[in-house]
Amino acid sequence: MSAVCPSPHHEDDVVLLGHGAGGRLTAELLDTLVLPALEGQGGPLEDAALLPGHPDLVVSTDSFVVSPLFFPGGDIGSLAVNGTVNDLAMRGARPVALSVALVVEEGLPLAELRAVVESMGKAAREAGVPVVTGDTKVVGRGAADRVFVTTTGVGQRRLGLRPSAALARPGDAVLLSGPIGLHGTTVLSTREGLGFEGDIASDSRPLHELVASLAPLGAQVHTLRDPTRGGLAAALNEIARDSRASVEIDEDAVPVPRAVAAACDLLGLDPLVVANEGCLVAFVAPEAADAALAALRSRPEGRDAVRIGEVSADGPAGRVVLRTLVGARRVVDLPIGELLPRIC
Model pTM? Predict the structure, then answer.
């Protein structure tokens, strides 16, 4: 008689915080539960989707559950607008219109709700995108955490820009528009009273004008992604997976602010997995790398843009490798659990 290991039972499986972290558990939840149930189309999971029958229009939706609501450099209102504007921009689109839905917990001071909504309006005006529709619901005490915000955006793609997570190619230069880790460490430090928020602030800001600076390069811009949940590690792994590419980056080229590095050292975090809300990763044809860097640096939000690596022609498909300061190589994988809960 052969010994067969029985299949594990999962009747008591439940949703974990890690399922919303943007890493491996999120990917498993989408692949095994959400997408099959919704009969989602195959292909890469982009920051924004093309509208069927309208190839120049894109749509994106996102929910924001930040704790605390207010933090150095932003708040849940401006973050909700900037986050959706940026998701549209990562498909090469300028924002055309937004919708906003609020879920408000009973007992929230009206002054706080007013501050959130006024910040949202200010961010929308600065981005040049109108809020055209929305909804408000109030739930009982304890049924939510103060206020949750969902924003949906519609955008129109810019002439010549057609970036996709599936278009990275061997030889591509990997560019980063600015330092990493600011948003996640700021929110965490503010929530937990760690004291680092005096030295750093969230990088939350709209990136559609930064993307517009790349428009003259057209099809030479292959891929754009803003490394939010799961940080730079998640963004690079998603691109490597969808493009079946081998991505290599240099540790000494990735800009990590000193305060972010200190906070990560204290908390045992890798800056590569910490969320960002105001920088982007661009994969561009090698002959366009210098022009792309110059274009990014021409904008205030891209003045610190750097080249951090390239797509290898002979590495294993779907893998991201970090060349360390000591000359070694280590695999950069998707984050597994929820390292920084409630940061976006």
Answer: 0.90
